[in-house]
Amino acid sequence: MKLVTIIGARPQIIKAAALSRAIKNHFSDRIQEVIVHTGQHYDDNMSQVFFDELQIPRPDYNLHVGSASHGVQTARMTEGIEALLIKEQPDFIVLYGDTNSTLAGAVAAAKIHVPIVHIEAGLRSFNKAMPEEINRIVCDHCSTLLFTPTKAGLDNLKREGFPMDNNGPFTIDNPKVYHCGDIMYDNSLHFADIAEEKTDIIQRMELVGKPFILATIHRDTNTDYPERLSAIFRSIIKLSKECQVVLPLHPRTAKLLKTNLDEDLQKQIFTCQDIKLIPPVSFLEMIALELHAQLVMTDSGGVQKEAYFFKKPCIILRPETEWVEIVQTGNAILADADESRIMEAWQHFQNNPPTAFPEIFGDGHAAEFMLDKIISCKVL
Ligand code: UD1
Ligand code: UDP
Fold it and tell me: How far apart are alpha carbons 105 and 85 in whole angstroms?
């Protein structure tokens, strides 16, 4: 069986590590994987570092689309992916998550009848102003095999009319939904010990034994609106008086800090000893930071889950989340870009550090489960 896997943005490259590892360890005699990197992310610290560190096979193709508006970027990717699908004639295309690379893969494949496997299916924010919400809805509704990472994802697909008890053969018009757990959980379990052993970021940043908050910000709804970005950074300045803040900066945020924050706020941020602004870190370094942080504050989907995997409280800098379970269990609080809600959430977790983190992301073997289903689908 031949799979064409599409990756492009940082979290997709990391997710692909889990599937490629499972293919190598358990399915190498039955599955050939052709990896296509769209080039959506291209800085070394947003792309290459993950290939080097996580033993992901080199991409067979790179479309080098780079950054552009949604329409232009998606169009360039769609054109490139269509040509490669025609050339490679795969049994399935594998798409992760909800980025423009996911959307391009879905549109290109569906129109020329290449069946789609969607990993991380069914997630919804119910906020169609998010580009990711459009991407994930389109991808789910073009897919043949849908793998949901959480119960909420499964329920969303049920509500949207996906059949639940259907038999094969599975097609775009008779799609099959499987609930399997989260592939990022596979990765976090696999790499946690390796991260502790192989990285020295905690020592290098002189964080040994010191409490710190790990923060990430990259959503366009936060970076592109000066009042929202300013509110987040004002809260970071307040928090830094109580606890150091470590903030690996996504390139989007690094650029927009300079245009969307006033000079005085920028000066306070760049001169504060207790706010450590650093370039994006590798995945192993990120895991090490998550393992040692006192609390995580983020608008990232991946990082809020990893906070949960590593049993840390999380302040979510968004009005809603697709990962509703982590809020329902009380381990994360939605604070949006609201200074007073952020400070209240911090105070809440200071007084009530969470202790119970029920298993809601599967058993750490989602990748093997998915590959098994993909193989048997071919047999049908
Ligand atoms: C994208 C995804 C988002 C995901 C995020 C993961 C879409 C619509 N958004 O957002 O869902 O959470 O990736 O990180 O697909 N840039 C660089 N170097 C790079 C990559 C980007 O400088 O290697 C800068 C460029 O100025 C670019 C901006 O970051 O315009 C945004 O990049 P883009 O890929 O369009 O969106 P992200 O915000 O990264
Ligand atoms: N990540 C990383 N280095 C960083 C920031 C994040 O390796 O400097 C990892 C993080 O651990 C998670 C993934 O990138 O696995 C999340 O990606 P991101 O926040 O860019 O996107 P999202 O998950 O919101 O789509």
Answer: 10
Q: What is the pLDDT of residue 379?
A: 52
List, in order of start, the domains of the chain with CATH numbers: 2-182+362-376 (3.40.50.2000), 189-351 (3.40.50.2000)
- The protein residue whose alpha carbon is closest to atom 33 in ligand 1 is 67
- Using only C-alpha atoms, the chain has a radius of gyration, in whole angstroms, of 20
The DSSP result for 228-243, as a single string, is HHHHHHHHHHHHHTTS
CB 244 within 8 A of CB 207: yes
Which of 378, 311, 326 is closest to 169 using CA atoms?
Answer: 378
**Ligand 2 mean position, distance from CA 297 (Å):** 13
Best mutation site among 217, 229, 252, 286 for ligand 1 pocket (most ligand atoms within 8 Å of CB):
252
Task: State the distance from the centre of ligand 2 to the C-alpha of 356, rounded, in angstroms.
Answer: 24
Kindly give the number of the ligand 2 atom that is closest to the alpha carbon of 298. Answer: 19
Q: pLDDT under 70 in the chain at which residues?
A: 378-380
